[in-house]
Design brief:
Elements (H helix, E strand, L loop, with lengths): L5 H33 L2 E3 L6 E9 L7 E4 L2 E5 L3 E5 L1 E8 L6 E7 L4 E4 L11 E7 L3 E6 L5 E6 L5 E6 L7 E5 L13 E7 L5 E8 L2 E8 L7 E2 H4 L7 E5 L2 E8 L6 E5 L2 E8 L2 E7 L3 E6 L7 E8 L2 E9 L5 E7 L2 E8 L4 E6 L2 H4 L11 E4 L5 E4 L5 E6 L2 E6 L4 E6 L11 E2 L4 E6 L2 E6 L6 E5 L7 E2 L5 E8 L2 E11 L7
Parallel strand pairs: 2-8
Antiparallel strand pairs: 1-2, 2-5, 3-4, 3-6, 6-7, 9-40, 10-11, 11-12, 12-13, 14-15, 15-16, 16-17, 18-19, 19-20, 20-21, 22-23, 23-24, 24-25, 26-27, 27-28, 28-29, 30-31, 31-32, 32-33, 34-35, 35-36, 36-37, 38-39, 39-40
């Protein structure tokens, strides 16, 4: 029998070893091919050389849009592109809309996602939905982009409430009840401070010839509105912020003595929280970043961060007339920005409490510095992915998702101190030259849109189907109107 023959047994064993060796070699080669493929390596079919690919994912609003890469059609935005590493010129096109362009610097084995392109109509259709005899002193949209509250100078304590959720954009007059706001004979104005998270209550600053006061306007039940100065009459204060975006909880700050209080409508006695505060920014219900100068230094101030009752020094900043402070959360990480226009540096921290809550505690170190000489504003995008620092037309923007930074000059002529506003999570808007302008977070794709007053803010409905602006009435430019501009093209039947 064969298995009893020593020669045949040795031959069989050799064949097994050879087979196992070939299988191991094939597995190793296959694994190596998979590893190289995972890192984007491929063979150029034309030259035979090894190349490294990257992946490009593209979306657009509205969908679909045609992809043009280096001047050649490459499908639509529903497709994904596997491309050799290199630089590409990307353009998105759709009938009835302006093109969107971007330069792609694609690295091997990387993934570039362009999920944010917004295509504006080639021809803008604008109409007035409400006209005012006097230019409104204030317009503010609720966080859910459902309601727009407008106050027109000369209307005393009356407002217009415009529904942005449908094409009719019905306007309803609402008024503060007698006794809520101070009655004056001279001109008065209202300034929107912030909305509560319920999208119903709006914190306002009412300024009149004799002074100012803070009022929480309830757009749904005006009779439930609150005059905070009357409610907390025992404690003088000059600025107010909502605490954790709740309409019945507040931070009250007195710039004269620097005292910062917490207050609640259920307890009309404010509680002292921090002393000697020059400027501050609250976050949720237990975090405050603030600037103080207890030693009255002529050259620098201290930035502190406070969580509940635990107070920590974050860093020093050059003395200035204003300070840039903001806090937000993106992708589960807390980001804090603090800066001074005196040196043009804004320091960005990530999860500062991970260091502060150690035992022993460590002083957090900034992981990014955004430099804009004379910076006047800092803000997070609507999705908190981007941090923008601005001085006039100059910007520095940090992308928390890709860890990239952009610096650019829009070249738009602006009024002194004018602030850009975030349209959404990826775009900013500015009023310049009598028009509203929109541009991407990196300064590209600047679009001149419809007319708007010099300090107008652009507002949008929930689905970004339309833009609303305070602008000269198209039918009577001597008056001001809230105009509606369509951002979606209606297909021709």
């Amino acid at each position: 029998m064969d298995f009893m023959d020593p020669k045949k047994k040795r031959a069989h064993r050799k064949r097994l070893f050879v087979g196992y060796g070939l299988m191991a070699t094939l597995i190793a080669i296959g694994t190596l091919v998979l590893v190289f493929a995972t890192y984007g390596y491929d063979i150029d079919r034309k030259t035979g050389s090894i190349i490294q690919n990257g992946l490009v994912l593209i979306d657009a609003s509205p969908e679909p849009a045609e992809i043009v890469l280096d001047g050649k059609p490459r499908g639509t935005t529903s497709d994904r592109l596997v491309l050799p590493a290199g630089q590409y010129s990307l353009e998105l096109k759709r009938d009835g809309y302006r093109s969107w362009k971007h330069t792609i610097n694609l690295e091997g084995s990387s993934i570039e996602q362009f999920i944010y392109p917004f295509l504006f109509p080639s021809k803008l259709v604008t109409k007035a939905i409400q006209t005012f005899d006097n230019t409104p002193s204030m317009a503010s949209a609720s966080p859910d982009r459902h309601w727009l509250v407008v106050h027109s100078s000369g209307l005393a304590n009356s407002f217009s409430l415009i529904d942005l959720s449908n094409n009719k954009n019905l306007s309803t007059p609402i008024s503060l009840p007698t006794g809520i706001a101070t009655e004056t004979e001279g001109a008065d104005t209202y300034e929107a401070i912030e909305w509560a998270s319920d999208n119903t209550n709006l914190l306002l600053k009412h300024t009149f010839p004799q002074g100012s006061e803070f009022i929480v306007l309830n757009r749904d039940q005006p009779a439930a509105s609150i005059n905070l100065n009357k409610l907390f009459a025992s404690q003088p204060f000059t600025t107010v912020n909502l605490r954790d975006k709740k309409f019945d909880q507040y931070y009250l700050h007195n710039t004269l003595d620097g005292n910062l209080f917490t207050a609640d409508v259920r307890n009309t006695t404010p509680l002292l929280n921090v002393r000697q505060v020059i400027s501050y920014k609250p976050y949720q219900d237990d975090v405050i970043v603030y600037v103080t100068n207890p030693s009255n230094s002529k050259s620098s101030v201290d930035v502190h961060v406070r969580q509940n009752t635990r107070d920590s020094l974050l860093r020093t900043l050059p003395l200035a007339s204003l300070y840039l402070l903001d806090i937000a959360q993106f992708d589960g990480r807390l980001y804090l920005a603090a800066g001074s226009p005196a040196d043009g540096k804004t320091y960005v921290y990530k999860d500062p409490f991970s260091d502060l809550n150690r035992s022993p505690a460590r002083t957090p170190q900034p992981f990014r510095v955004l430099i804009v000489p004379g910076a006047q504003h800092v803000s997070f995008s609507n999705n908190a992915r981007f941090i923008a620092v601005q001085n006039g037309s100059m910007f520095a923007v940090y992308d928390a998702e890709t860890s990239r930074q952009s610096r650019f000059d829009t070249k738009l002529p602006l009024s002194p101190g004018q602030k850009a506003n975030w349209m959404d999570g990826h775009r900013l808007t500015l009023s310049s030259g009598g028009n509203i302008n929109a541009f991407d977070f990196d300064g590209t794709n600047t679009q001149t849109l419809n007319a708007g007053h010099a300090t107008s803010t652009a507002f949008f409905d929930k689905d970004y189907n339309a833009m609303f602006v305070l602008a000269p009435d198209p039918a009577n430019p001597s008056k001001t109107a809230v105009t509606r501009t369509e951002l979606k093209v209606t297909p021709t039947p």
